[in-house]
Amino acid sequence: MPKTFTDQELVDGLLARDERLTRAIVQFLYHQCQKPITRLVTRQHGDEDDANDLFQDVILIFLQNVWDGKYQLRSDTKVTTYIYGIAQTKWLRELELRKNRTARFERYDREQSMLPDTPTPEQLYLNAEEVESSWAVFNQLGDRCRELLTAFYRDHLTMEQIAVELGLGTADNAKTRKYRCIQELKKLTSVWNDQPTKKPNTTGLSAI
Amino acid sequence: MERPTDKEAEHDWVERYLNGQMTADERAVVEAERQADPAFDTDVNLLKRTHDLMKEAFLEQQAIDTIRQLQVRDRRRTQQLRVITRSLGSVVALAAMLVLYMSFSPITVPDSENDLSVTRSLADDTTATVQKRVFGQFFDGQAHLTEGQYALAVKNFEQVLTATDIRPYFREAAQWHLAVAYLKSGQPDKAERLYNQFTSCVDCEYSVNAIDRWKVWWRIKLAQWLD
């Protein structure tokens, strides 16, 4: 059985940004919320794969909302209720998008026209949604930068090890590369923070 | 240490500050720089936020991996459960078919007792008359069994068994038929008494195959249970 948490412990645990604690919290939330969310989706025109994808998205949104301070504990709403609410809203939106897509495809079929190369409003909306998490922002970096920053900041490899693993020659080369990558990520962070819906959280830096 | 002039070195300097790797004196220098240079302060804050974002990204990646592992595990479990349920369903269906077969398929006992040579003393006219009467009863019993007149069949076979001078083979045949007749006429306890005589029999001549024996046993138990 996974460890259990009170709502307060969940929020505090996530704000600590600790790997083991976050994993335990995610496991707890999975056991609490996966089945209701699967039922929600499968009863409303979705299948198990849709439910799994939705659950992943919903957990990411919840984590991000906690970290961004968008989620505030309330005595009348449990965390699991809040998560279920996100799932409901997101799934209804997904159904609406699918409906619109189907209608549009049918219209194009009737007119025998090609799909436009420019993204549709729904695609733009989905793309905008995709960058709602830190993970999505980080993934906007190129593969090499992602690998390098992950190796240094998450796996705590030395510059010498990174130079060897990523084939960058010397440790100095790796260091310069790392500097450029972090500058690139700073730009992305800055753009993300400037989004009107975003409330940057500049407090409580934990050592990386 | 003074604030480095080289940008890359300055970045390392700030990271050491953010990671808490500086002495109090060094921290004081950075703090002073932040006070004096708003652009530098903004840059430090942005790097802080970038570090947080990276940390969150790693945690989100880990969260997705954890969820996927759990989903794969649960999917496997569901599939295993489906296989087990289907297997159990098959076993239950087979058991039900077996019960139906044992309960309703006809019981067959061999017909070879129709051979007149199984009786004794056919040469003796007096005895032969008795034997023929016994035979007559036996065949009447068989006919009554076939026609569903089980009470009459019981009577016929009971009379057959009152005769003393009949071969063991023919006696056993009559006993088996009587057991079936008892069973069909709703007297499972009597049928069981006859049936039990054969379970311990080592030199029986009249051979009833195992499946038909099981059928008789099963129907006796079923009838006793339904009583």
If you had to describe this structure to a student in words, what would you say it looks like?
The complex is a heterodimer of chains A (208) and B (227). Chain A is built from 9 helices and no strands. Chain A has 2 domains: 130 residues, no CATH class; 69 residues, Arc Repressor Mutant, subunit A (Orthogonal Bundle), CATH 1.10.10. The C terminus of chain A is likely disordered. In chain A, helix 7 packs across helix 9. Chain A is mainly α and 208 residues long. Chain B is mainly α and 227 residues long. Chain B folds into 2 domains: 95 residues; 115 residues, Alpha Horseshoe (Serine Threonine Protein Phosphatase 5, Tetratricopeptide repeat), CATH 1.25.40. Chain B contains 8 helices and no strands. In chain B, helix 4 runs antiparallel to helix 5. Chains A and B meet through helix 2, helix 3, helix 6, helix 7 and helix 9 of A and helix 1 and helix 3 of B.
